[in-house]
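input
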Amino acid sequence: MDMSNKTSDKNVATEDDVRIVKAFIDYAQEVIDDMEYERPVDVTVYQKDLTSMQNILAEREQQDKRIKELEEEIVELKKYNRIVSDRVVEYKKNSIPKQTVIDKIEELKKQISIDICIENNLEKHYELKYKIDVLQELLEGGRK
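output
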């Protein structure tokens, strides 16, 4: 069978593949043990192959463990991002754009000018002046 026609997804070991490799490693170890016991044969080559397969399997298990850890981190990051997004939305709902405050100050300044010219009402003048001061403090970051 031509392996080059398979996609890279099909080249990834499945759980069945891992189970088969583990069974083969166990079987190979038994065969090697029998070979050493029954007749004196140099099993070094077989031992190297078996060790390589065990190392590959151990690496895969480490990768699986790391993938699981990363997936858990992703879940936590998604929770954190959702919390931050909710807070940003809430902040935007509860905040006043700076330009709106500046526009209101200008509107009050015009009202003071009109009041002084037309009504000469000092009480209203001071009330509007106080409102302007409060709005300017908001723009500057609060009272000092």
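quick obs: Residues 44-93 form the longest helix (50 residues).
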